[in-house]
Amino acid sequence: MNTGAKEFGRARRRVTVTDLGRAAGVSRSTVSLVLRNSPLVRRETRELVEAAIERLGYVYNRSAANLRRQTSNLVAMVINDLTNPFFAELAVGLEEALEAAGYVTLMANTGEDPARQRRVMEAMRETGAAGFVLCPAMGTGAGDAAVLAGWNVPVVQVMRRLPGARLGAVVPDNALGARVAAERLLALGHRRIAFLGGSEATDVTTERVGGYRAALEAAGIAVDPGLIVPSALNRGGGVEALRTVVALDRPPTAALCFSDVVAFGVLDALNEAGLGVGRDFSVVGFDDVAGARHTLPPLTTVAVYPKELGRRSAAALLRRMSGPGEPAGENILTPSLVVRGTCGPAPREGADR
Amino acid sequence: MNTGAKEFGRARRRVTVTDLGRAAGVSRSTVSLVLRNSPLVRRETRELVEAAIERLGYVYNRSAANLRRQTSNLVAMVINDLTNPFFAELAVGLEEALEAAGYVTLMANTGEDPARQRRVMEAMRETGAAGFVLCPAMGTGAGDAAVLAGWNVPVVQVMRRLPGARLGAVVPDNALGARVAAERLLALGHRRIAFLGGSEATDVTTERVGGYRAALEAAGIAVDPGLIVPSALNRGGGVEALRTVVALDRPPTAALCFSDVVAFGVLDALNEAGLGVGRDFSVVGFDDVAGARHTLPPLTTVAVYPKELGRRSAAALLRRMSGPGEPAGENILTPSLVVRGTCGPAPREGADR
DNA sequence: GGCGTGATTTGGATCGTTCCAATCGAGGGT
DNA sequence: ACCCTCGATTGGAACGATCCAAATCACGCC
């Protein structure tokens, strides 16, 4: 009598299908059928079982079910930098779509650290992730890609592609976006246009710079390598990059930025230098993050719809997970130019400031 | 011979401890001991097994292990709004700490929707989350709290507290932060100070407004209810709120804002209205998000260290998970005022603008 | 009253691991 | 030669669900 309460109060044994069966007067097999909404069970039987579920406070053990069925309701999302609003939005779209499809999301933030990325992906694999959506950390090598391919698990890359990996990817058409943005500046009469920001190694930068180049060349303008300045992918990088180009002998009159965040830094630096944005110097960003509409003046930028990228990568992964024969193709989103207030006509040649 | 390749290429059976045992010439029990680094196994035996692991490409099945051991390496993180940079940082700190402790994070973004919150938490429970870190969606009722308490699973709330829930929480000292900020404005000579933003219902707002009130009353200033204007928790809300107070008969000369995001909107509206920030009107934010140092002028704000909040909630949860008797106490972080450029002395009484 | 038929229900085996009590083998002591 | 100890290894049962083939039930019909 004195031990009874103690035994009961703490850590009581988990309620199982067998318990439910006993309580409802049926077998565990029948209970299992009820749990999975099988049309085989008689209505009254189902109600009996459902009452027992309620009464005993049963909790379905999905991982036991997964073990037996050789499936999993887990999808892994591995993101390089969640504190970047662009990737945060992407993550939200992704998780939303996965949840709607009945999956639970495993999440890890790698902070651009390939070693951490390896660790977390390994851990997620062991926990039974049925698939991966991966935005690879910078510096992820071809070796990592090969290992991943060897895992024989559906993987969808988003935004960034691993070198030489045949894994499937959802990406914006970076080249197109950059080209359209550059064409806009050209149409406004700009002839010396810089490309600011981005890190030399990554495919995203390569593609965006490629689009920029293509536009200039199509307009018959020689690309000046001195006007392409990589930088850190944050606000400070933008500040640095702008300072670099205004110090040139023949400074540019406009800049296409690798990202909005870099563009924010560029705007900071322009203000600091006393240059009129959209008048003395025009700026285009890339991404269209939430903050872009709130700069002064509001930032003209290339929208790439991160939330939609997230949703599509979820869809692509689910497709790969269902059909084993599904091709690991690429899904390319068309970006679009959002014209706001940071671009104006090129200042007259030789006009002083 | 013709079927052989086909059978092998696709969906080969999973490698198990039994397979490893067979390959290494030991029993599955011994393999299991090796996997768990037991000191019981002889070195040579261990090496034999490890070679087999390598050779067969074995993947540990942690959920099978969890099933048997009645444990779980999964922790659930339920966040109201990941697109808010404040919560994104919190999430990153949290995930980082959990990963370091050997846990894998289940993540869900509720988008402030209590129904979705119920759904995802239920799904996570079934999946076997060993504990929850929850930043409750606005509108989460006492009913939800009661249900959650009935689950008998370790829960730590972060930033927000559910009404009447004895669940444990990690929160900043909102009242203190607001008081210090208000005291700063008082010291600068301001006498009519507004509190802009926040939603009336939430505990965070109540606490921050409370601190603001306390400071004013301590200075012998009657609190004018007309100067406390709630708003949406985004930039637009800040714009609205400022417009409201400048239209008053006796407008304030300074504002303490519910959050940095609201403060950003307030700065936008001040610019729009042609009021000099820090000269005609002083502003203090709350949170110190990354963007706060980049406004023009840089925003004076109350730092609450979201990443640290994340880390501490991880630590608090892990403590609760290990010791069943651990108290569900509160962990309160001391915020601090970060002085930048948006506050100046109160304009002279009656001076025109 | 026996039988066929379709609708329900059921017990054993299974998923991959860990726990546990039992076993095995090599020395050591007498 | 025998017993005992101790380190190392092992097979059976268990975790909580599902699958599957077989059993049971209800009912109409000859």
Largest interface: A-B, 52 and 52 residues
Order of helices and strands of chain A: HHHHHEHEHEHEEHEHEHEHEEHEE
Question: What value does the Rg of chain A take, in angstroms?
Answer: 27 Å
Strand order of the largest sheet of chain A: 2-1-3-4-5-11
Q: Looking at the chains present, what oligomeric state does this protein adopt?
A: homodimer
Distance between the termini of chain A: 92 Å
Global geometry of chain A: elongated
What does this structure look like?
2 copies of one chain form a homodimer. By secondary structure, chain A is of the alpha/beta class. Helices cover about 45% and strands about 15% of the residues of chain A. Chain A is built from 13 helices and 12 strands. Chain A has helices at about 5-10, 15-25, 30-35, 45-55, 60-70, 85-100, 115-125, 140-150, 175-185, 205-220, 235-245, 260-275, 305-320, and strands spanning about 75-80, 105-110, 130-135, 155-160, 170, 195, 230, 255, 280-285, 300-305, 330-335, 335-340. In chain A, strands 2-1-3-4-5-11 form a 6-stranded parallel beta sheet, with helices on both faces. In chain A, strands 7-6-8-9-10-12 form a 6-stranded mixed beta sheet, sandwiched between helices. In chain A, helix 2 (about 15-25) packs across helix 3 (about 30-35), helix 2 (about 15-25) crosses helix 4 and helix 11 (about 235-245) packs across helix 12 (about 260-275). Chain A is elongated and about 90 Å long. The model of chain A is unreliable at about 1-10 (pLDDT under 50). Chains A and B meet through helix 5, helix 6, strand 2, helix 7 and helix 12 of A and helix 5, helix 6, strand 2, helix 7 and helix 12 of B.
